[in-house]
Specification:
Layout: H1 4-54, H2 62-85, H3 87-111, H4 114-137, H5 147-156, H6 158-164, H7 169-178, H8 186-205, H9 210-223, H10 239-268, H11 273-288, H12 291-301, H13 303-323, H14 329-356, H15 363-391, H16 394-405, H17 408-418
Helix pairs in contact: 1-2, 1-3, 1-4, 1-5, 1-6, 1-8, 1-9, 1-10, 2-3, 2-4, 2-15, 3-4, 3-8, 4-5, 4-15, 5-12, 5-14, 6-11, 7-8, 10-11, 10-13, 10-14, 10-15, 10-16, 10-17, 11-14, 12-13, 12-14, 13-14, 13-16, 15-16
């Protein structure tokens, strides 16, 4: 039986955790608004910039491959940094590194330096990884039945900047022209400022650190165990983490492949840059905005139904992108919106599975490792998408991606048959 002093200490800790969780969500939301604008630059014009500088469609997926490869290294470093120093330091430095990379892209485009372009895109990827890692900050202090919500609130704020970014392509291009910078480098000017500002917001305001507090609460709970009880060890990472990782990796491969080649496909069918910006802006909005409801659905309906919904939605996106006429702006928008929604369902449900299967002592390292896998999947998908499209067509690329998404369902069914997962 707990003493009154112990009960009071537990209540105080719970109140502190709830207060810091609310503050954390506020700070993360602000940083994600800024981070979304930085993220959108590479997605919207990275492939087009590479096409112009390299003079080849086959290599136009290279920018996505490079900045997702850079995001893999950043995810690893942010995960390890969080384990030792908390969320604040890793997230802040990751965003600032992304800003430096974006500035390097601007300089490379201005000088025509391909080596600098490749190196800068690699560093720019740190912002992408950090933008994804920030979602975990929303779960550190969240109750078990609110982890989907915590993830979604950290993600949904990205919508504002991510949608605004691509739709600013034209004015940013004109601004770049006025500075003597190539038009397609304009969005990267915004990315440099937005990523750097996001890093500063986190560094200054993410106090107390949510992960360090969650870790302290777990340690204090262990210390309150009755004397003579069995020694406590850090539990092993559950099978749910592997399932969540598989879900997020597959959805990343499908989304990146189709998304990366859509601007190239549109330009081949003589769409204006404003139309490209609209399609990519709607797509990125669909990646993040549904988090307003998907987090709650993941908590209420369960992880399994939402993973299945992700696979089916991605299949529909691939089928529509493959069959839509190249000059049909409306159908391309619908296909890319479905692509974004399918990715969102997979990321939120997969993240919840990972958090369910871990504890504060092993969570950041596991999360960082999984995000490395996600980034590497995006790297391969982005780099290969140009080659696949060049060798076949945009239609075959989209169809293949949609079919690949269906692998989510047998993977999930196998795992549920072998191990009980939270649903």
């Amino acid at each position: 039986m707990e003493s009154p002093e112990t009960t009071a200490a537990v209540e105080t800790t719970e109140q502190e955790a709830a207060r810091v969780h609310r503050r954390t969500l506020t700070v993360v939301i602000l940083s994600q608004i800024l981070g979304g604008a930085g993220l959108a630059a590479g997605v919207a014009v990275g492939a087009l910039l590479a096409q112009d500088m390299l003079g080849s469609d086959a290599l136009s997926g290279l920018p996505t491959g490079l900045f997702t490869l850079g995001s893999a290294l950043a995810a690893f470093l942010v995960g390890r940094s969080t384990q030792s120093f908390g969320r604040r330091v890793g997230l802040a430095y990751g965003f600032i590194a992304g800003g430096i990379g974006a500035l390097g892209v601007v300089i490379a485009a201005t000088t025509g330096s391909l080596p600098l372009l490749f190196a800068s895109l690699f560093v720019y990827g740190a912002g992408t990884a950090t933008n994804l890692q920030a979602r975990y900050a929303g779960t550190d202090l969240a109750p078990a039945d609110r982890r989907g919500f915590g993830t979604s609130m950290a993600m949904v704020a990205t919508t504002v900047g991510a949608v605004a970014g691509p739709n600013l392509i034209d004015p940013l291009g004109r601004f770049a022209d006025s500075l003597g910078v190539p038009t397609l480098a304009g969005p990267f000017i915004l990315a440099a400022a937005a990523y750097s500002a996001a890093g500063l917001v986190l560094f200054v305001f993410l106090r107390p650190d949510p992960y360090l507090l969650a870790k302290r609460i777990a340690t204090d709970a262990a210390a309150r165990e009755p004397v003579g009880s069995a020694p406590r060890t850090v539990p092993k990472v559950g099978i749910g983490a592997s399932v969540g990782a598989t879900v997020m990796v597959l959805t990343q491969i499908v989304m990146v492949a189709i998304m990366t080649m859509t601007p190239i496909h549109m330009r081949a069918h003589h769409h204006e840059m404003a139309a490209v910006g609209l399609v990519i802006g709607m797509h990125i909005g669909a990646m993040w905005l549904p988090s307003l409801v998907t987090g709650t659905l993941v908590d209420k309906l369960g992880r399994t139904p939402m993973v299945i919904a992700s696979g089916v939605t991605l299949l529909l996106a691939g089928l529509l992108a493959a069959t839509a006429p190249g000059d049909s702006l409306g159908l391309l928008i619908l296909a890319l919106v479905l692509l974004g929604i399918g990715w969102n369902l997979g990321l939120v449900s997969g993240t919840a599975l990972v958090v369910d299967a871990t504890v504060p002592q092993n969570r950041p390292r596991t999360q960082g490792t999984i995000d490395v896998l996600i980034a590497l999947a995006g790297t391969g998908s982005g780099a290969m998408s140009g080659l696949v499209m060049s060798a076949t067509s945009y239609q075959m690329l989209s169809l293949g991606g949609g079919v690949l998404a269906l692998l989510l369902i047998p993977v999930l069914m196998w795992a549920r048959a072998k191990h009980p997962l939270r649903v």
